[in-house]
Design a protein that fits this description.
Elements: E1 7-9, E2 15-20, E3 26-30, E4 35-37, H1 46-58, H2 63-86, H3 95-107, E5 109-110, E6 113-117, H4 121-142, E7 157-161, E8 176-180, H5 198-211, H6 215-231, H7 235-238, H8 243-250, E9 256-261, E10 270-275, H9 278-299, H10 321-335, H11 343-362, H12 367-376, H13 378-388, H14 397-406, H15 419-438, H16 443-466
Length: 467
């Protein structure tokens, strides 16, 4: 088990003991997708599992195959292998040994390409911080306050990052605390990903027809790209979109799509509401009522519909987040896109377009004026927070700057916060249907879908005109 994963996730029906009632009855709570940790020889690792329970009780995310808890477990797996190889109990670890562990993380080479490092320094620091947090849990269990301390056996300390107080834009930012050890490398400069360009999105759409083998696969990929473009959602959130929410939005006078929110603590899934055009809803419904229904009829006719929108054609099961990422990468390779193309770049594009619209709508002169409005205007702050799923307004600074760089190239549209995305997306619908023509789908089906999409777009434009 030298390189194997040292954790498994609890199943969907797993219950965690909570307390014993006065009548002796054991009370439990749902605790699915919690990592269960083992030593490399397969033995139960009590210290690591105690740490995982503490992290679970703090409310770390478990969505999308374990979420933040699974990331912590993967980090901790490196440390457990190091401790096991040296037969060292965590409470007996020395500072010298911790330094050796960090050095091994930095020096490890990629098995397929020994000229490259296995991980960058930013990843090394992240793993090291998780391990220090684990060692603090061990120290608490043994009541050893001097185990991890600036002058203790493990010479680590907690640093604080405080926002500057001379800038209004940082009023909402809190104090961030993090572990530091002298053995940690210097953090690498953060590489900022730019929003995906319109040209690259068009290339991805064009690649769908070349890369897809069936009508279902082709339409599902167009649906996936459309959801990324018009919602700004994360890949794990796209994977959780439900048919029922699409149909509920279709019945609204002003359609609002309920989107899952993954970047919240705790195991309970939360949602936010996003505006979506009638033409986009019509496109999503066509996939639901034709392609998705056909797959479920063939593959799961005896099973209850799980309700997830995007499904695997061969099994009828929901797509997972990693598969969605692989789909985007496959399309990017087929399209021979030179710039980096990943799901999160669609989110950058969505946020930048939203802010361009708000700048035009409020006739804002510069970024500082926008930031003050964002911090002082409760209505605007609440709406932006809901649409973007950001609770810290200061974290949106980069998108504000990008928006002001682009605002000179955008012409005013009737509904600045909405119609730009709607029109771009409708063009994508046209491209998808043209591809269906080239693939010799039934003309009557294509004409029906186009008629429905066009009527939905007319309704969207009419709503804006009346506003």
């Amino acid at each position: 088990m030298a390189n194997s994963q040292l954790h498994v996730l609890t199943g969907p029906c797993f219950e965690m003991p909570l307390y014993v009632g006065h009548n002796g009855e054991l009370k439990t709570q749902a605790a699915d997708s919690i990592p269960i940790m083992f030593w490399p020889d397969g033995r139960w690792c009590a210290p690591a599992n105690r740490y995982m329970r503490e992290a679970f009780e703090k409310g770390l995310s478990r969505r999308n195959r374990g979420g933040s808890l699974a990331v912590a477990a993967a980090h901790l797996g490196h440390f457990l292998r190091f401790l096991w190889a040296r037969q060292v109990d965590p409470i007996d670890l020395s500072d010298n040994q911790f330094r050796e562990f960090i050095a091994e993380l930095r020096n490890e080479r990629c098995p397929r390409d020994p000229s490259r490092r296995q991980r960058d320094d930013t990843t090394v620091i992240a793993i090291g911080r998780t391990c220090l947090s684990f060692l603090l849990s061990v120290a608490r269990h043994y009541g050893d306050d001097d185990f991890i301390h600036p002058s203790g056996r493990i010479r680590a300390e907690v640093h604080e990052h405080r926002p500057t107080t001379d800038s209004d834009r940082n009023k909402s930012a809190g104090v961030r605390r993090y572990w530091h050890h002298p053995a940690f490398p210097n953090p690498e400069p953060q590489r900022k990903r730019m929003p995906i360009s319109t040209a690259s999105i068009e290339q991805l759409r064009a690649a769908v027809g070349v890369a897809s083998k069936t009508s279902h696969q082709r339409t599902r990929r167009h649906v996936m790209l459309k959801l990324f473009e018009v919602t700004g959602a994360r890949r794990g959130e796209i994977a959780l979109v439900k048919v029922a929410d699409i149909m509920e939005a279709a019945a609204m006078q002003h359609p609002m799509l309920r989107m899952p929110t993954l970047k919240k603590r705790g195991g309970r899934l939360r949602y936010r509401m996003l505006p979506i055009s009638r033409s986009d809803i019509a496109f999503l419904k066509q996939y639901i009522e034709v392609h998705r229904r056909s797959v479920l009829t063939r593959k799961r006719h005896k099973c209850v519909d799980h309700g997830i929108l995007l499904i695997n054609e061969n099994t009828g099961e929901p797509l997972v987040a990693n598969t969605i990422t692989q789909e985007v990468h496959l399309l990017a390779r087929k399209a021979r896109i030179e710039e980096k193309a990943c799901p999160h770049m669609f989110r950058h594009r969505f946020l930048t377009k939203l802010f361009v619209a708000l700048i035009e709508q409020h006739k804002l002169e510069n970024a500082d004026v926008f930031r003050r409005l964002l911090l002082d205007g409760e209505t605007l702050k609440r709406k932006v927070s809901e649409w973007t799923d950001h609770t810290d307004m200061a974290s949106l600074d980069r998108y504000i700057d990008l928006a002001f760089e682009e605002v000179g190239n955008f012409q005013r549209v009737h509904d600045l916060a909405f119609m730009g995305v709607t029109l771009d997306s409708f063009l994508g619908t046209i491209d998808a249907e043209l591809e269906a023509v080239r693939r010799s789908e039934q003309p009557a089906l294509i004409l029906g879908r186009l008629s429905e999409s066009l009527q939905a777009l007319r309704n969207d434009l009419a709503s804006v005109a009346r506003a």
